[in-house]
Amino acid sequence: MQHRGQESAGIVSLNEGQHIIHRGLGLVADVFKEPELNRLQGRSSIGHNRYSTAGDNQLANAQPMTASLIKGPVALAHNGNLVNANILRKQLQEQGSIFQGTNDTECVLHLMSHAHGPDFVTAIKKILPQLEGAFSFVFLTDKALIAVRDRHGFRPLILGKKKNDNGQDAYVVASESCAFDLLGAQYVREINPGEILWIDDQGMHSEQWAQVGKLSRCVFEHVYFSRPDSIVFGQSVYESRKAFGRWLAKESGVPADVVIPVPDSGVPAAIGYSAESGVPFEFGIIRNHYVGRTFIQPHQSVRNLGVKIKLNPQTAVLSGKRVVVVDDSLVRGTTSQKIVRLIRQAGAKEVHMRIASPPTIGPCFYGVDTPQKSQLIAANQSLEQIRTFIEADTLAYLSLEGLFAAVGEKSGAGAHQKNRQNSFCAACFDGDYPTPLFE
Ligand code: AMP
C-alpha cells in the first residue's frame, strides 16, 4: 500500500500474546530491512503507511499506534480522518489524558482506555458512536484482529482469505485488493459500512456496530488515490478511470493529432479519451520511476524540482502536433502549468488540457490531503483564468454528471445505473460534505 502514503510506515505483529513493534519515517523499503522483518514474528500482524492529513510528519504520529491498556496491549491503524478529533482531544486532556503526538487517531486509544467492558470488542463498540468522520480501522489486541468501518463507508476496507502453510484458513484485511493479489489471497467482500468484524482463535465474527448512514464512498479513490489494478467499492479503478476519459471526450472533445497522459495518474483516462474520440494515444511524456510522487513532498520548492526530474517530454511524439494532454485532477494548477510548458518546449503546436475529474473546489476532511481552499485554484479562479495560468490553448474538466455517470457504469459495459451518485462522497468537487464539520 505504499502508494497510499510515503511519510512513515509501521508493522505490529502478535507473538504469543506480546506485540512486536517497528515504525519509522520514510518508505517501506527504508523502514523495513532484513533484521526488522526477522524480528516481526507472530501469527498475525497489522501495518500502515501514513501520509498526514491531520498532525505533522513526526515519529510519534507514525502508525500503527500502540498502547498498553488495562485490558492488554492494543495496536491501531487508521485510514481516514476524524472530523471531531480536536473536540475529543480537548475533552480527553481535560480528563487527564496525556497525548504523545498531534494526529487524530491517538484519541481513539485514549477513549478506549476510559471505556469499560469485559473485552476489547465491547470497549471498541462503546466508543465508536463518539467518532465522527471517516475511519477504516484495524486493531490488533492480544487475542484478535478487529476491523471496523464508519457508518458512511468513506474509505475502503476489504476482507480476503487464503490458506496458510498448515492448510487452515487465514484472513486478510486491506484497503485495496491489489494487496490480496500480492499475497495470493482471494477477495471475499467489503467490510460493510457500520460493521465491526473480528478474527480470533474461534474464527471470524461480525456485527453491525451502527446502522448504515448516508453512504459516502470517496470518489477520489477512483479518480486518483487507489491503484488502478485494485477493486475499490466493488468496482475496478482502471475501468472507472477509462470511463472518466470516455466521458471527458464526449463532453469536451477537440480536434487533435495525439492524446497523451500525464503519467502515471492520467494513463487510464487518456486511454478512455482516445478510444472515445478516435485520436491516437501516445506516450508524449516519459516518467522517471525512480523519484517519488511530487505532490506528497510537503514543500513547494521540493515539488518544483520533482516535476522536472520526473517527467521528460518526447519531441518525436509532440513536435508540430495538436496535443490533448489528460491528467486525473488539477488541484493547485502548478503541475499542469509545468506540463504544458514542457509539451510546448518539445514543439507542440497546440496544447489542450483535459482533466478527468471536476474542478477541485473544497478541501477533504475525510482522509485525502487536499490543500486548503485558498490554494485550490478552481475555488478562486474562473475556468478562463485557470486556462491562462496553466498556459494551455484550451482547458476542460469532466462534469460532475460525467463523473457520477462514469462511476455508475458497469466495467466497460456502458450501462449507466441511476442514482448511483448518491452513494459517493464528492465533497472536494461539489462542496456537499456528508457530516457536520467541527473545525
Ligand atoms: P497540482 O499541481 O496541485 O494541480 O497537482 C495536481 C497533480 O497532483 C495531479 O497530477 C494529481 O495526479 C496529483 N494529485 C491530486 N491530488 C492529490 C493528492 N491528494 N495527493 C497526491 N497527489 C495528488
Defining traits:
four-stranded parallel beta sheet; elongated; Glutamine Phosphoribosylpyrophosphate, subunit 1, domain 1; Rossmann fold; 439 residues; binds adenosine monophosphate
Characterization of the model:
It contains 16 helices and 22 strands. The protein is α+β, with helices and mostly antiparallel strands and 439 residues long. The protein folds into two domains: 2-213, Aminohydrolase, N-terminal nucleophile (Ntn) domain (Glutamine Phosphoribosylpyrophosphate, subunit 1, domain 1, 4-Layer Sandwich); 220-430, Rossmann fold, CATH 3.40.50. Strands 4-5-6-7-11-12 form a six-stranded antiparallel sheet, covered by helices on one side. A hairpin with a 2-residue loop joins strand 11 and strand 12 (203-208). The structure holds adenosine monophosphate. Adenosine monophosphate is lined by residues 224, 262, 265, 295-296, 327-336, 368-370.
Question: What's a quick, concise take on this entry?
Answer:
This protein has 439 residues and is of the alpha+beta class.
CATH class of the largest domain: Alpha Beta
- Mass-distribution shape: elongated
Architecture of the largest domain in CATH?
4-Layer Sandwich
How much of the sequence is in beta strands?
15-25%
